[in-house]
Amino acid sequence: MDKRVGGVLCPAHLFEGIIMRFQITMNMPSRSGNSVHQIIGEHPAQSLEEMTEALACSDFIIVDEIYKDNEAARGVGNFYSVGKIALNPLFIGKVKVFQS
Questions:
Q1: What is the DSSP letter of 100?
Q2: Under a CB-based contact definition with an 8 Å cutoff, are residues 14 and 53 in contact?
Q3: CA 52 distance to own-chain centroid
Q4: DSSP secondary structure letter of residue 9
Q5: Residue ranges per domain, the chain?
Q6: Which of 10, 20, 23, 82 is disulfide-compatible with 98, CB 3.0–4.6 A?
Q7: With the CA atoms of 24, 16, 8 and 98 taken in that order, what torsion angle do they form, in degrees rounded to the nearest 10?
């Protein structure tokens, strides 16, 4: 069933399927003072193309924000969820499929 998101009717296939992990670059300052920051987020889009469609269909997109522990930064640790976050696509500069 299609869903209405931000007043726009979006195809149901955008909200079904496996969860993929995306690296999202936001064009807004980070807490550490950098001009941009990156978010790792999980979303039910099944490809980068579906994620792009979902971004185009809404004023905000909800992802499950993922952090990595200190060992994950070296490639041997874990990732963990810190909860859902709504992102405004107007501030998204780049999205790619996350490669751990």
A1: -
A2: yes
A3: 10
A4: E
A5: 3-97
A6: 23
A7: 10
pTM of the shown model:
0.74
pLDDT recorded at residue 20: 92
The pLDDT of residue 72 is above 70: no
Closest CA to 98 of 25, 35, 8: 25
| 23 — pLDDT class (breaks 50, 70, 90) | very high
Residue 57, token pair as written in the block = 């269909």
Mapped onto helix, strand or coil, the DSSP state of residue 40 is strand
The secondary structure of 48-79 as a DSSP string is HHHHHHHHHT-S-EEEEEEEE-TTGGGTSS-E
